[in-house]
User: Which sequence fits this backbone?
């Protein structure tokens, strides 16, 4: 059985499968998904859909993400005290970096395609519980553009149709 996981109802609200809204951020999403998995053991595949800021990806794209980096750890990585900073479920998809805050400026020398605030924790929880995880990010804004937060709000639900087409392939 499949469930869709989104941070906000405004990102996605129509589905033929259960939808879990986690709230914004790594901690909220990890706690909410952990609780949901414990109460719904028959769901084996979680598909995260949400918005992201484009770094190498362009506004309006739907990116299948398969590499997830914890941004705070990546910036200050020390192998003596940190676990892996990146979860890699495939080499064929996009690379999303995950921070606890909305990013309007980011190091573009990294191999990151987009930035969000939940995917790393969702991938971590699914890995811990041995659940299949897929992730699709609609690029709602471009990191560093003028009025980036306003652009994100304007484009918050624009990726729903594209994601529905992807979701239908899993059903």
Assistant:
């Amino acid at each position: 059985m499949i469930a869709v996981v989104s941070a906000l109802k405004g990102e996605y609200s129509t589905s033929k499968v259960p939808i879990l809204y986690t709230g914004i951020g790594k901690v909220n999403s990890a706690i909410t998904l952990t609780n949901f998995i414990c109460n719904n053991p028959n769901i084996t595949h979680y598909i995260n859909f949400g918005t992201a800021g484009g770094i190498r990806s362009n506004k309006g794209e739907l990116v299948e993400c398969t590499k997830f980096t914890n941004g705070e750890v990546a910036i200050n990585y020390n192998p003596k005290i940190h676990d892996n900073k990146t979860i890699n479920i495939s080499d064929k998809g996009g690379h999303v970096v995950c921070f606890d805050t909305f990013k309007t400026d980011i190091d573009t020398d990294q191999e990151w395609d987009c930035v969000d605030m939940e995917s790393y924790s969702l991938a971590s929880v699914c890995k811990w519980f041995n659940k299949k995880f897929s992730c699709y990010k609609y690029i709602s804004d471009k990191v560093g553009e003028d009025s980036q937060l306003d652009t994100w709000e304007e484009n918050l639900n624009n990726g729903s149709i594209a994601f529905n087409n992807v979701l239908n392939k899993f059903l």
About this structure: The radius of gyration is 15 Å. The beta strands are 2-6, 19-21, 45-54, 62-70, 86-88, 94-98, 114-116, 132-142.
